[in-house]
Please model this.
Amino acid sequence: MSTDNTSNETVVTSYAHAPTRTITAGDVTYAYRELGPKGGIPVVFFVHLAATLDNWDPRIVDPIAKNRHVITFDNRGVGASTGNVPDSIEAMADDAYTFIKALGFDTIDIFSFSLGGMIAQDLAAEHPDLVRKLVLTGTGPRGGKDIDKIVATTYYDVLRATLTRKDPKEFLFFNRNATGKPAARAFVNRLKERTVDRDKDISMKGFRTQLKAIQRYGRSAPSDLSTLTQPTLIANGDNDRMVPTVLSEDLHRRIKGSELVIYPDSGHGGIFQFHEKFAAVAVEFLGR
Model:
């Protein structure tokens, strides 16, 4: 294991200015960013399909990092992380475990979105002592109804975005109505606030491999989520076209004691559309 991490007394509280670091575990070098005060249990962010370090909404990250040590990272084979993209969610969870242990943490909280939530569920089930709290947003359980249809929905919306010269996330994450369209533009603009040391996009091969992994996850036998005893916060919009909202409700039923927040007139990116409200909810939940 090796790392280029260097000590720095200055506490970075803005994700737009968080330095990119790397750590090598085995034959993979993982790229990550960290911000917020060091010490205590870190909050590790698990990102969505095709996403890199630059795809986290700073209006979600920054409020959490005000009082917590926050870590975001590129999955293997994505962005600045080396290696090949895994073809299963289980393997992605194994990579996440390798990365977290390489950083020296024995206990973490997880904030996850979409694909990241699928990885987080597998990690928490496989290593229950590692995970103290779970935030699962815009995601669903293994074998959940219609998760395998994410592939078709994604390709369709990517095509629509290409034809209209827009970011695919405007179609995938938000309703195409008078409320959703401006929220989508605002979200995409927030992702551009970081102007230096930007991450590189996922390759098309890696993107397709992630989609296949999600499809396999959706067509697999359901996991026994009764084993997840960690305090869990689940959130989504009421019209999620990618990972249907009913799957958030399904997670809520299957994870005992979990909390569920559904935002109105919003889609897969409901937490980003309602970032002010949700950031406060997430901060309160993680701070208990």
Observations:
- The mean pLDDT is 95.
